[in-house]
Amino acid sequence: MIAKSDLPGSSDEKVPEGLRPDGSPYRVLVVDDSMFIAKQLSQIFTSEGFEVLGTAADGAQGLDRYKEMHPRVDLVTMDITMPVMDGVTALEKILEFDKNAVVIMVSALGKEDVVKKCLLTGAKSYIVKPLDRRKVLERVISILKR
Fold first, then answer.
1. How is 57-126 classified by DSSP, letter by letter?
2. Binning pLDDT at 50, 70 and 90, where does residue 4 land?
3. Nearest to 141 by CA among 26, 12, 22
4. b vs e for 65-94, b when ≥16 Cβ sit within 10 Å of the residue's Cβ?
5. What is the pLDDT of residue 111?
6. Deepest of 19, 59, 121, 136, by most Cβ within 10 A of its Cβ?
7. Cβ atoms 84, 53 nearer than 8 A
8. CA 73 to CA 65: how far, in whole Å?
9. This prediction's pTM
10. Class of the domain covering 24-144
11. Considering Cα of 78, then 44, then 18, then 67, what sign does the dihedral take?
């Protein structure tokens, strides 16, 4: 009997979701004041082939990192509540700098009004904490493949 793996082009091997059709990785900047959340997001992304270009601990740092890395950044995940500069302000400033920036907000439950403001400002989507690996990847992939 012929196994599926014996047929050309029918590999069961799953292609990592963080890769573009040409095989190069999508590049991500993670902005969150929680080292735990930043590490968790980074691990989720790298496990699927994304390249995490860097992390930032507040909105001001995130804005600076985005400007340094532009145009190599494909996606920014942005926490809302952070010291120095909050995520809403950082989102506005990133979009002033690059109107085509792809920013996904990361929010705790109960911040629906702030998330709505972010979406109206130009955020592409949002992810709710606590993080669910599958939901994070589904949301991110749906935005990047639009």
1. SSHHHHHHHHHHHTTS--EEEEESS-SSS-HHHHHHHHHHH-TT--EEEEEETT-HHHHHHHHHHT--EE
2. very low
3. 26
4. bbeeeeeebbbbbbbbbbeebbbbebbbbb
5. 74
6. 59
7. no
8. 10
9. 0.89
10. alpha beta
11. positive
Paired with 104 in beta bridges are 77, 125
**Cα–Cα dist 44/17, whole Å:** 11
Q: Which two tokens stand for residue 125?
A: 């989507």
Structure tokens at 34: 């929680």
Q: Are residues 62 and 15 in contact, defined by beta-carbon separation less than 8 angstroms?
A: no
pLDDT higher than threshold 90 for residue 120:
yes
Please count the residues of the chain. 146
Q: At what angle do helices 59-69 and 87-97 cross, to 10 degrees?
A: 20
Residue carrying structure tokens 């989102």: 91
| 140 phi/psi in degrees, rounded to 5 | -65, -45
Rounded distance between C-alpha atoms, residue 84 and residue 123, angstroms: 20
